[in-house]
Amino acid sequence: MAVISPLSAPAKRMITSAKETGKFIDATQGRKTKAVIVLDNDSILLSALQPETITKRFNEYGIAPERISEEEVD
User: Fold this and answer.
1) Which residues contact residue 39 at a Cβ distance below 8 angstroms, ignoring those fewer than 6 apart?
2) What is the pLDDT of residues 22-57, one digit of tens each?
3) What is the rounded distance in angstroms from the CA atom of residue 70 to the CA atom of residue 49?
């Protein structure tokens, strides 16, 4: 699992591809997308929470998502 910024071009391509293949989950409830979570099964989940908040909450439950910079997404 990885948490990435939705602003990079590679992230936008991943979102488009996930929509086309049916591996797309929009959990923003109409709010602005602030984080993209890449799941282990290659599904893409959009979140309105900040990446730091997501990482903190996962860590509270013993789950360690990767934080990937925009340079690493390419």
Assistant:
1) 1, 45
2) 999 999 999 999 999 999 899 999 999 999 999 888
3) 18
- Supply 31's token pair: 């709010």
Are 53 and 37 spatial neighbours (Cβ–Cβ below 8 Å)? Answer: no
**32-55 core/surface letters (b: 16 or more CB in 10 A; e: else):** ebbbbbbeeeeebbbbebebeebb
Query: Which residues sit opposite 44 in a β-bridge?
Result: 24, 38
Burial status of residue 24 (CB atoms within 10 A of its CB: 0-12, 13-18, 19 or more): middle
pTM (2 decimals)?
Answer: 0.79
Query: DSSP alpha helices (H): ranges in 1-74?
Result: 9-21, 51-60, 70-73
What burial class does residue 22 get, using C-beta atoms within 10 Å of its C-beta: 0-12 exposed, 13-18 middle, 19+ buried?
Answer: exposed
